[in-house]
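pasting for ref. prot 1 ->
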Amino acid sequence: MNIQASLPRILLCATLLMVGCRQMPASTSDPTFGGPATRVLWLQSGATIVGISPELGGRIVYLGREGGSNLLWILERYWQSPPTERLKPAVDGPNFALGGGVVWLAPQSAWWSRQDLDPKKRDRAATWPPDPFQAFADFRIEQQSEQAVVLQGPPSPISGIAFRKTAEVLPDGFIRYTVTATNHSDEPVEWGLWMNFFLRATALPTVPLPTPDTHITFRSEIGQEASLEFQRNDWLFRFLDWNRPGETATGRWTKAFIHGPVERVDVRAPDAHLVFELPSVDSGLVHPEHAFVEIFASAAGKPNRYEVETHGPYRRLSPGESTSLDLRFTVHSPESATEPLGD
């Protein structure tokens, strides 16, 4: 379905009225993110389209190719909620993954261990949900143009951290996405930045490995091993496409931890080839609970999805000190994904 065919221009204009009535930059075939109550800021670089919602933690809600579909896994109904029903940050708030492109802090085991608002989560070292004051905060729009969007989030009472998120158009068809975390508490804190892109099950991530002996570990519902099949040769890693018709792995999930200087992740979908170009980060500086690149595959049927994740250095931040992490992404036609996986 073409969104410009299904929604009159006046409705698109009304949807974006709160941000200056700027049209969506190009046609797409996936209207699920766009209701009259949704506020989305749009950028386009070449054929690459990205949409960001300031009212849902500055989250990326759309990533795709001109004329194509949204590659992100999202719970669509929450993009269309009216303001009175929109998810709000609270200690006892939503306990589920909303999807899109999100930013968390690492390590996951410390998410609730450094706060007093919810002693039960602190005492059991809860690893879910993520900080709701970052996930669902209303970010302030500090800059919006056809070239860049800059959003500033409030300090979280859980972590003491405030996020600043910047998306900027580059001349080569890429969009650079940068997140800066600043310590607003009155004492030092230790965190690493963690970017996570939830992808639809039809968007298969492939990781070119830096060396044949790149170390990969796994975690799954059965322990420290993979419960979903994967393919690896000297230079590439990917999960096998368990989403194919007639095949099922219901209830299974596996995360691959790829330890090493990975430079990019290729995502191959039926109508697009998404490329993430990753920053140069010493993988030894990432918190030992994590890896520089992590690929999560879920066949739990909620629905099925992948997650492409990357981590920055784990750092001690004095009051007022900041740390940043950035990456670049672009979306090509599916024909551009020509690298063979080998045997």
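and prot 2 ->
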Amino acid sequence: MIVLDRRAVLLVANIKLALQVFRQFAFIIENGSGYLEGRISPRRGTTSYLLRLMLPPGSPDVVPRLVIWDPVTLPKYGGETVNSLGCTHSFHTLPNGPGGRVTVCHEPGHWDAGKTYVQVLWKAQIWLECYQGHLATGNTISHYLG
């Protein structure tokens, strides 16, 4: 008889659910690390964003990192880049990810294994819509998200 621990069962269920809801995503294992990766295109704008939800060891009990993988640099309205801000409430970002990429905040201080990766990817989709609003108006992400 094969016995799986709670964490393994939750992790597999969480990944499967994310892949069912976000069908354009794939689960990839590279160099011993797993991540969900796929593109999201906001309703506004013409850019498609490649997102990577990085699943650290200890997942799903450990908070995943949501990184905008491509484009690497996200311009701000009127100049500069979102990347240059690092961790900021006004843009709902955490410290930059690999290669200085933007990491979207999804309330990591409130993470527990009962949260799903779908919730994180929905936040990314909403964040990208707000980012498009920022590009059009100059308002910050927090202007839209509160």
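The chain has three helices and six strands.
Residues 6-145 form a domain with the Ubiquitin Conjugating Enzyme fold (CATH 3.10.110).
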